[in-house]
Design goal:
Strand order of the largest sheet: 1-4-5-6
Distance between the termini: 51 Å
Helix content: 10-25%
Structural class: alpha+beta
Number of strands: 6
Shape: rod-shaped
Radius of gyration: 24 Å
Order of helices and strands: HEEEEEE
Largest sheet: 4 strands, antiparallel
Oligomer: single chain
């Protein structure tokens, strides 16, 4: 089977001009930061209690095993994983 390739003519001068421009770097927001408020999307439970789905919490820490969260009443669960 033969495949036909279409090669577009490249304007090298335009590439040189673009290279000289400063390009912006935009970082994706791919995690919560300490102090951010959010609502839980899954049930988080521990030996002492649990947070229901939809509970408003604040991220109080980030560790190797996930986020630490706390609600408005001071109830806290640490290392809940990466899904809030």
């Amino acid at each position: 089977m033969w495949v036909a390739l279409y090669v577009k003519e490249i304007n090298l001068e335009a590439l040189k001009d673009r290279k000289e421009e400063k390009m912006a770097y935009i970082k994706h927001k791919n995690r919560y930061e300490i102090g951010e408020r959010t609502k839980t999307t899954i049930l988080h439970d521990s030996c002492a209690g649990f947070f229901e789905i939809g509970t408003e919490v604040t991220v109080t820490g980030i560790g190797p095993r996930g986020y630490d969260i706390e609600d408005d009443d001071g109830n806290r669960i640490i290392e809940i994983g990466w899904v809030i």
